[in-house]
Amino acid sequence: MLRKSLALFLVFVLAMVAFTGCGSKPAEPASEEPAATEDQGTEEASTDAAEEKVLVFNLFSEPKTIDPQLNSATDGGHVISNTFAGLMRTVNGELQPELAESYEVSEDGLVYTFHLKDTLWSDGQPLVAGDFEYAWKRALDPLTASEYAFQLFYIKGGQEFFNGEGSADDVAVKALDEKTLQVELIAPTPYFLNLTSFYTLMPTRKDAVEQVADGRWAIDPEVTISNGPFKLVEYKSGDKMILAKNENYWNADAVKLDKIVATMIVDRSTALTAYEAGEVDVIDDMPTTEIPRLLAEDPTFQIMPYLGTYYYYFNISKEPFDNEDVRRALSLAIDRNAIVTTVSKGGQQPATGFVPAGLTDADGKDFRATNGDFGIDPMKASVEEAKELLAKAGYPNGEGFPKFELLYNTSEGHKAIAEAIQEMWKKNLGLEVSLANQDWAVFQDSRHNGSFDMARGGWIGDYSDPMTFLDLFTSYSGSNDTQWKSEDYDALIEESKMKSGHDRFEVLYAAEKMLMEDMKVMPIYYYTNPIMVKEHVKGWSLDILGKWYFGNVDIVK
After folding, report:
1. Would residue 546 count as lying in a domain?
2. pTM of this prediction exceeds 0.90
3. Is 302 exposed, middle or buried (0-12, 13-18, 19+ CB in 10 A)?
4. Helices marked H in 279-363 — which ranges?
5. CATH number of the domain enclosing 470
6. Cβ contacts of residue 304 below 8 Å, gap of 6+?
7. How do residues 169-191 score in pLDDT, each as one tens digit?
8. Is residue 293 domain-resident?
9. Contact criterion met (CB below 8 Å) for 274 and 280
10. What is the domain count for the chain?
11. Of 154, 243, 301, 482, which alpha carbon lies 20 to 30 A from 147's?
12. Which helix (H) or strand (E) holds 313?
């Protein structure tokens, strides 16, 4: 066994390409979200607020869940990142030890043994290795229906348990004692340590989870427990949640904030008004029309790099989207450059594949540049080719093509993009498309259940490797909303897990080609992350994966 002290060994995430420009990101889940000083400028303001250090962060939409094993969206992820702690944590692009004091890796790279710090839950009970074992097996239990269960398929016996072909006892994660957790992988996984910082792999405690069904234990302040720098003390659905400093956090002495008020102001104009009035300290979405003014006048406005892809789903189980010529025609008929320069205006880059730029392969080459553009011109629509493909599919000049609906979650930005693409399809292909929007939680269910013709999607990487984008489309992925399943595609993803270096990336290249050559999805652009943070907020962290962390924040006025 090769022992590695985490105090001396820091793992850095891969360097990413920083996007340039100015603009706004439509509110995201993840693939698809925070406001005042307790609340400054509202009826809740008091003399106590002046004495406390309170960060107001606009979360935008209300999270569907803040249960670590059930969450699959960025809004819920922001909350979990600040209320829970895993074995590792990524802060400012650096992978740091969190609950792990040290770890050991076997010579073959298959067995990890983690030695835990002495830590407590927010209710004062000791956190033990068995809490990790319970949480990981809970995520893999098919009855839990975790959309991110596939992130644990790297563990021996994990996928078999999820598929009903094995038991929880067969899953090779085990608490050897109260402070020692051991896990055996099916193959060496270079990003496994990064995965241990992801919310699905955060610990949860069995007695707390089972007090309330359907993950609601996580939003009930009377029941919920956490082990991160903050704990939930108030939850008002559709309004806000309040997080207070967790005095039992292992590094509580370093936590300077007394509270975080996470508001749920959905309208971006309203959120910006609250920010400019001093009622909100942090926002990460603002109206596109305001970008030029903010860029010129507000020094707190900045654009951060973001590892993510904005795209549209085809419901491949429905006609005519089961026809690859139709899908390619719809994809080639849009002008991606016009969308990012005249609609989203956030310095985003037109997307020519599903995996964004900035991820390198084993030979140091950019994955996106190496695997090509799949016939997509990033600077303009390929109208004539799109017309030919539509005619080949039996719809010359759009004749006979059924009217269909494009579904998106409620957002000014999503609406503007949908309207632009609606007009492009009408002008370039003669197609009639209706638009519909739903609130975020309802939208997630509609998309997951296949209740759509086409729908907006957004995927933010969970770690810095192409796999975080490609395994999304496996048949066993809880986030594969295309309704497309392919044994051949699954086989490529599984094969890549058993290979390393150049050979591994050759398989990943083949997997993206299978996904993109007949347009199982329609990539539109690669994200950037426009944000605004008040100057008195010091020590905040927002990584390339889009996760806010406030455990090191101080308010200095």
Report:
1. no
2. no
3. middle
4. 291-297, 324-332, 336-338
5. 3.10.105.10
6. 528, 529, 530, 531, 542, 544
7. 999 999 999 999 999 999 999 99
8. no
9. yes
10. 1
11. 243
12. strand 301-314
